[in-house]
Amino acid sequence: MVKSLLFDLEKGTGPVLELLRSDEVIQTVEYIRVEYWGDGNVLVSDDELIVIFGIIGSLPRIRELRIEFDELPLPAQALRNAMAHPYSRIRYIALEDVRLSGSLADFEDVADAVRRSASLKTFRMYRCGPSPETRATLDPIITALSDIPTLKDVTLSTTHLSPEALGALGRSKSLETVSLDHMTISALPLAELCQSQSIKDLKFWGMPEINDDISSMESALAINNSLKMLRVRYCHLNQNSGVHIARMIAANKTLESITLENMNWRNFGGPIQKALEMNNTLRSLSLSIDSKDLQNISNDAQQIALGLEVNIGLQRLRLLFRDVSLNDIQKAFLGPITGMLRKNYTLESLYLNNGTLALSPEVDFLLKLNRTGKRHLLYKHAPNGELMDMLAAYSGDPSITHYALTMNPALFHV
């Protein structure tokens, strides 16, 4: 039974067509990858490609299609044929290094086929664009994605699109995950994405222009009630952007995880302290700070700890300082974090410089105690039954048992 196939067009199209027309492939194949990484010595005509992808689109069990081309334009009509079959069940499409060729009408035909898709869930484009000889753009195709009722996940990387086409994704009613890598965006499209009422996971990678439009992101995300995860990596967010994001964290009531990497944010402690004091829905926060001033790290550590003393939601905190030694980090954070954990019952994981630094045995123990989810019982008048259940659940850990009995000696008499 053949479920997956790899077609290398450098070896010619005859064997590909023969295999695609075989009964075994027609009845069983679910995954197909078509690739061409040659230097153009093997000629493949547009007509051949249009036929090949038309057959692929008509296969009754096909679920996943990957196209990886180099030095060979893909006719837009070939992609259209792969998607336009009325009974197509393709759920996943990925295009890598593809240059689409054809007329404006051909590209509109692809967009129409995309719009009519009844099963597509995942769409990926890596380093794609129109071929040099065409006047068409990929914009209509990407804009059409927002009309697919089944679409859940879109990734666009280093692909030639207008910012407006990216913003159109924010109008989708079904899209849940959007990942943009080295794409060009501006204020209004950025706001459209951040205002989406369906997107739950939003990722930006290598897009420093976000700094210019950070106020649009703040305003949109502050009132967004659907987004759960925000990741901004290698966008070199600056001090001003950090302040805007901290204000957004303070206002937003649904975000659960935020990752901000490679930030040039020298005084992050104060804004993050205020955000943590006001936000109790965030569960995970990861910050990677570049070019950190040594003289300010102690202040930042104290401010972060003060914010966490009153925060009752955050469970995981990761802080990475690229220009600070482990010794300096330990000196700055040990006291404030230890004091904070004596009052905070919810923080379960603390990673400093990717977890390579352990502050102290007491910090490790208090974090472990928080992970039990029962620490609050030790400081309140909890029913003896609940306390005994806790001791029974962690009877194999003498450190937790000893701590519980130390904090509540009455348990000796239960």
Key attributes of the depicted protein:
414 residues; alpha/beta; 13-stranded parallel sheet; three-stranded parallel sheet; 16 helices; 16 strands
Describe the fold and architecture.
This protein has 414 residues and is of the alpha/beta class. Among the domains are: 1-158, Leucine-rich repeat, LRR (right-handed beta-alpha superhelix); 372-414, no CATH class. It is built from 16 helices and 16 strands. The protein has helices at residues 14-20, 23-28, 46-58, 76-84, 104-115, 139-145, 163-168, 187-194, 214-222, 239-251, 269-278, 294-310, 326-341, 361-371, 384-393, 398-407; strands at residues 4-8, 31-36, 64-69, 74-75, 92-96, 99-101, 122-126, 129-130, 153-157, 177-181, 201-205, 229-233, 257-263, 284-289, 316-321, 349-352. The strands form 2 sheets. It has a 13-stranded parallel β-sheet with strand order 1-2-3-5-7-9-10-11-12-13-14-15-16. Helix 9 (214-222) links the parallel strand 11 and strand 12. Helix 8 (187-194) runs parallel beside helix 9 (214-222) and helix 11 (269-278) runs parallel beside helix 12. The N and C termini lie far apart (65 Å). The mean pLDDT is 90.
